[in-house]
Structures are given as C-alpha cells and as structure tokens.
Specification:
Elements: E1 2-4, E2 7-16, E3 27-30, E4 43-47, E5 50-59, E6 68-75, E7 86-92, E8 98-105, E9 119-126, E10 131-136, H1 138-141, E11 150-153, E12 157-160, E13 163-170, E14 185-189
Parallel strand pairs: 1-7
Antiparallel strand pairs: 2-5, 3-6, 4-5, 6-7, 8-9, 9-13, 10-11, 10-14, 12-13
Length: about 190
C-alpha cells in the first residue's frame, strides 16, 4: 500500500533480467485506474544489472469513484518471456494532518530545561495514515546529534480514532544559558500532506 496525494507523481518499476535482455518498449504499467491506459515508461535507465523505469502521472482526487487506485507493472524479455505482474494499491489521501496538542517535558518531568537534560516531546496528531515529524533541534542540541540538526520521527501509536500520539526524546540539551530556544516542528502524513 502506498499513500499519495493528488497531483503529479513519479511511479518507478525496477526490472531484473538475466539472459536475453530487455527493451524499454517491453516494460509496461497498467495505469487504467489513473485514466492512462498501459503506456510505455517516460524514461528508463540501467543501475547495475537492473533496469529502472519511471512514468510521470497525475493522481486524481478519486479513482473510478474510489480512494484506492490499483496499478500493476510487468515486462517481457527480448525472447517474449513475460514476467510476473506486480500490483500496488495507491491510496489517495487529500487530508492534511492536524496537530491537536504538543507537550514538552525535561528530565524528571520538569517544566523547564537545563543543559544536559533530555527533552521528551509528545505530539498528538489527527491523521489516519501515519505521520512523519521533523524537529529542527539545532538551537537546543546542536547539529552534531542529528543529521543537519534535524530529528526525524515516524513511530507513533494510535490513541483514539484518527489520532496518533508521537512521543520521542531529544537531547542532551547543549544550548547553555538562554531564556528560550526555537524548536520548529514540521508534521506531514505518509502521502506528503
């Protein structure tokens, strides 16, 4: 299952062929549910022994009256051996996640933060299909603790219907004595909303 939002996306197929080889015109995707029929790929290239092809398509807001589009891909080699079809379901997600509540506690559940503390951040997000949270921690813990100073979290637990509770630790705090630091937070769902 893949979650997508309406708009232009790139669909990728990776084909392994050992033997007679394969041509671009023998690689197919059934995009009928996206009103595209079965076009040849927009582009193909080789990465090692693998042929990688892409189709640029526009995802509608619904597929034939449903929020699920079923697509498939397959290929034939140069001597007409047809490979197995691979099916994927694209679930269309038009709804942006909504942050309902943010809580920040320091070591020992204090309401203030000191150098050396670990901060526990809990975010309640209304979203059905999973979330990804990016926290810019440069001012609080520096750039060395996390790649480019950005902490990435995507492990959340459902709390109630459509609400994900995301709790994670950030630290240790290295900001020194300052009255406040910024922790910019970006929340997206698995479709990119």
């Amino acid at each position: 299952i893949v979650y997508v939002k309406p708009g232009t996306v790139e669909i990728t197929a990776e084909v392994d062929e050992i033997g007679s080889g394969i041509k671009r015109e023998n690689i197919f995707a059934d995009l009928t549910s996206l009103n595209r029929g079965t076009p040849n790929p927009s582009e193909c290239g080789e990465i090692g022994a693998q042929t990688v092809c892409t189709w640029e398509v526009t995802i509608p807001s619904v597929c034939s009256g449903s929020e699920v589009c079923r697509i498939s891909a397959w290929a034939k080699d140069n001597v007409e051996n047809e490979g197995e079809k691979t099916f994927t379901e694209l679930h269309i997600d038009n709804v942006k996640p909504v942050v309902k509540k943010v809580e920040l506690l320091a070591t020992g559940e204090k309401r203030y933060v000191q150098t050396g503390d670990t901060m526990t951040l809990t975010i309640h997000v209304e979203e059905e299909n999973g979330v990804r949270i990016l926290v810019d921690v440069k001012e609080a813990v520096g750039e060395d603790s996390y790649a480019n100073g950005i902490a990435v979290f995507d492990q959340c637990e459902p709390d109630e219907e459509r609400v994900q509770v995301c709790t994670f630790d950030i630290g240790p705090v290295t900001a020194g004595y300052v009255s406040s630091v910024d922790l910019p937070i970006t929340v997206t769902d698995t479709a990119g909303n």
